[in-house]
Structures are given as C-alpha cells and as structure tokens.
Amino acid sequence: MLPDNLPSDLPDSIGAMRRMTPVRLCAYTLVNALGPGREATLTALRKQASGLRPCDFLDVDIPTWIGRVDGVESEPLPAALRSYECRNHRLAFMALQQDNFMAAVAAAVKRHGAGRIAVIIGTSTSGILETELAYRAREPSSGRLPHNFRYRQTQNTFAPADFIRTALGLEGPTLTISTACSSSAKVFASATRMLEAGWCDAAVVGGVDSLCNTTLYGFNSLELVSDEPCRPADQDRKGISIGEAAGFALLERRGTDGDEYPALLGYGESADAYHMSSPHPDGLWAAAAMRQCLTRAGLNPNDVDFTLLHGTATRTNDSAEDHALVNVLGENAPCASVKGFIGHTLGAAGIMNVLMACICMEEGFTPASLNTRAIDPAFKSRIMLEPEQRNLGTVLTNAFGFGGSNASLLLGWPARLQP
Amino acid sequence: MNSVLVSGIGLMAPGLHGWTASREILAGIVPHEPNECPKPTGTCLRAAERRRATSVTRLALDVASEALGNTPPSSVTSIFTSSGGEVEIIHGIFDQLASEDRRLSPTAFHNSVHNAAAGYWSICSGSHHSADSLCAYDDSFATGLGEALLRCACGEQDVLLVAVDLPPLFPISEFRPITQPFAVALLLNPSIESAKLARLKGHYVSASPGSDDLDEPGLESLRLANPAARSLSLLMAIAAGRQKSLNLGYGMGGSLMIEIEPCN
Question: What is the rounded distance in angstroms from the CA atom of residue B81 to the CA atom of residue B216?
C-alpha cells in the first residue's frame, strides 16, 4: 500500500533509469566493535550482544559510548605497507585478513588480471587521527609538524583507496568516495556503473572509518552524541554512539559457476537539498532513493522482505527515515537498525548495513534493533525488537549523510528472481 | 561508450578569470598573465548559507554556476572532486583539537566534510539528483571526469563535474605543496539546447600516463601547482577547437584516455 501524498516531482525515475544487471558479492569481510570477521558479527547479532562501551578512546572527555575495535593498537601493518601506518589503515588491513578475502581477490586477479579490478572505497575520516596527533606534537617555536608526518599516505581522503589497492596488488580504476555517512553505500553504485561500462570485470568496494577526535568532538558540538548506548527508534533516543569499522566486498557480474552469492539488485541516490547536517524531516528524498532501488531492480515494494535502517538514533534521522520507509513500503514494514550493536560507523556505515544484510540473508534471520526499548509511538514501520528466523529474498539498506546525501541499496538472491 | 557533449565550462585560477575571459589565453592567442584570483563569492547561495560557506565551497559554486549557464540547476547531477577538500576548516579543527579547549564549532564541523561543497550546491540548486564527492590525490580531476562520463553512459543528463583545490595552510602546506588556487567545472550531456563546446569520449587504461607537459611555461607551472589544474590540457584543446587525444592521470596509477572532438 502506498500513501497518496507523494510529491509530484519525486524523482523516482531520475535520468533514463534502466533495470540493472545484478552484481554479485563473491566475497566479503568486515571488522567492527563486535570483532574481526563474519563469524563475530553473526554470533553477536544472534545473541543480541552489543559491542558498545563507555568511551575509553585516548583522552577524550565526552561522556558517551563508542564502538571501538579491540586490538587495533597492537597490530602494526606489515613491513611492506609500513609507510601507510595509521589507525584507519590498520583497521582496513585487519578486515582484509578475515574471511579468506585476500585469497578470493587473488583468485579474481588470476581470472581477470589486476588491471581489470577496480578499487572504490568510502571514507569520511580517512587517517586524520594521525594529523590530530601531529598537531599536538608541533615544534613549539616554528609550529612545524613532526618530520615523519605522512600526509599523502594517512590524512588525504584518497589514502584508504590507495592503501587497499596497494595491499591487494590491484591496478584497476581506483578512487575514494567521501560523502560523509553515505560514502560506503555510494561505492556500490559507482562500481555498478563501472562494471556496466566495461571499465573493469570486478571491483573491490568497501568502507573504512576510524575513531578520532574530529568526529567525537564534532558530533558532540552538534549535540548529536548520546551519553548512553544509542537507542535507535526509541521514544527516548538521545543520539548516536560513534563506532569504527572496515568492510570490503568483491563484486562481479558473474560468480563462479555453481555458487550462489547475494547480489546488489538495485541502487538509489538522491540529495535532500535541505540542510547541511539535518535530514529533510519528511524523508521525501530518502524515499526517492529507496524507490530508485526498486525501479532498478524491477521489483515492487511488497518484494522487500526486510530493511536495515540507517537508524542512527538521532531524533531527526530516525523520524525522517520512518516517514520515508512508510512512504515507499507502506506501514508495518519490518526493519531494524544495527547501530545498537556497532555504533554509527560513519563512512563505513553503508557497507556495514550491506554486509549484515548478506549475513542475514545467508543465515535466514532478521536481527533485533538492539537497545530499542520503547518504540517511538509516532513510528509506523515495524521496528523488530527480537531476532526472528526467516528466509529473506531481499533486504533494503539505507545510508544517509551530511550534505543531505542519500543512498539506498537493495540486496537479494539473483537466481531466485523472475527473469 | 558514446561521446558526450560539453555544453558549459566554468573556470577560476590565477590569470584565468572565467571561461569566456580565458578562451583566447588557453587557445594560445593571448599570453597568460598570472595574477591573483578575485575572492570567491558563492553568489548562488542565499545570504544565510553564504555566510557559513567556506572559500573552497564558494569557489566550487562559482565555477559550477558559470558552467551551468541557462541549464535549470534543479535537473543537475553533480560530481565534486578535490584532493584536499575543506583545507582551511580542517586546519582550524586540528588547531582547536590540539588546544586546551577541544570544543568545536558545529558549523565548522559540518563544513569540514569532503562533500561540503556538494551539500551546499544541492541546497542552492534545489537539485535532488545525486551529488557525489570524490578524491584521487593528484589525479582527482580525471578520476572525477571518469565518474561523470560513466553517469552519462547510464543515460543521465546535465551531469556537472566540479574540480577544486585551494592551497592548504601551514603547517600541512609543508607536506602538500598545492601552491595556487584552481577550480574548473564542466557541464556534460545537456538536456536542453545548449552551447556545443566539444565532444568527449573516455575510457580507463591501467598504465600511468606519459608526459603531458604544456608548451607554455606559465600554464605548465600552474598545471603542476594544483590537482584541479591537471584539466588544463583538456581545456586548452577545447579552447583551440582542436581534435586531440589526451592521457590524463586517473587514480594515481592508471589513466583516462580522452578523445576530444571539436563541434564546429
């Protein structure tokens, strides 16, 4: 059922939108506050165990909870990658080493050649923690940064894409997308266009964002940081818990014969054109992005089995997103936010939702919206408070960012779709 | 991939104050005389947003507006590309965080994101189409152009590419020598009857570009002084109305092969 109050200029057919060929996730890996690898995330999702903890990051003096990844400090990069040394790349490298991901990429290199595999990475923080620390260590009389500061390999926004390409030995089109908290959802759209144009045969997409003072003090200045573990969609939600994470996927239009992989069926991108740091209160353009997903997938709203929300637990995001979801899927569409598990991982949030959608589809369950106690009575979607065993054919995921940047992705099983 | 029409260009750099004023310089008819850029205005923004917008954002929006001409801004899909992003704001945040009082200004924080210019552009243009924001270090221009061409290949019209960088402040400036301001915007694949400046076709090659030196020493030093100025060889070919193949650095390791066809 669709409400009839859609704005007439809703761009659900932006451009000459065509149905897209599904893009398979032939391998993936992730690390977040739940631990390294797919198994750690799966176990915690099933057991409803949160990775959030009271903020113990450096000397940060904000009363808040964070989704910090254990062991980053004690795992330096290997010698060959030493010039990239920083927290952001350590997190990325930790993820690369899980779930046989590097072996899957090496096999793809054999099939296609290193020059035919693109690298598209989303980040908002890049390695700016290094620069924050370097500014604290400025030479007092001259104000200069320590001589061993490496701007290009750490702070620059391109650094994560450069690092991943180097670590994996890839030579295809390489770029970073940085649209705040939608960054690592948009990488899937970019990779799809590149695959369609034949610029590559496969793509490593991903997202990595790490804890730093800029985001902790920055979101605190906007009064968007909760002093308790974040409570998405709760009537008493008080804001976000900032987390860190890295996740990567190997995308191909065709998988290895005989294997079934979850796939990207559709993507949607839009802009609120409303405010730099607040979403459009009615979620109109978030709804437009979701609708584009369905159009590109050739599916209808009732084909969506579940939605993983952006669900940051700010007053405005969750309310706007509920409006958007009801606008597109109707009332009572089942959905959950995973932010209560891992926090808001900012530039990595998009791919965290995608990979958790894959895990849930593969394992046949829907996660609970952890920490949600009393659902906001104004909300009309069905926020799931308990995990449920359920076969999932499709999962819609959302990621929204500063600057009004919206991205939605629809995951599903391509083999089970009607041709 | 079909060729794509370039229907508008915006430009601001030392001695290149707008595309119209710069065409003869870039075509080699009038000598290039480097002088200071006028302060970016951000004229397309409403007063409230203009007060908050940074120099990087204003400069980006100035060239975007020039490239757009009469195209209705609300139909535009945009791709912003920059190596350093909001260099001035970011420096201020690092300075603040290294001081005793680490509290940040909320406006400074939301202005610090790499997609700040893209966000302000959406607000002032009223376009609900995607506004992307990319980075590929010194190759940010051609990498952004590649993204723009890929969007055109998907049938999207009125695709706007904006490449911008400002010199970072001390002390980061010692580690990132971007020494001149430069901003350029291209409007591709217009939906309405528009100027026809050139047609472009491009594809990715997984090998570094060869030497791309410009003959004119002043423009060559500008090209090397800012990642957005890596667009100069393309702009010069368009200004001269020349058919040309260019190999521009893409993703710091590959290149974008560009075929430029004049329209007249």
Answer: 26
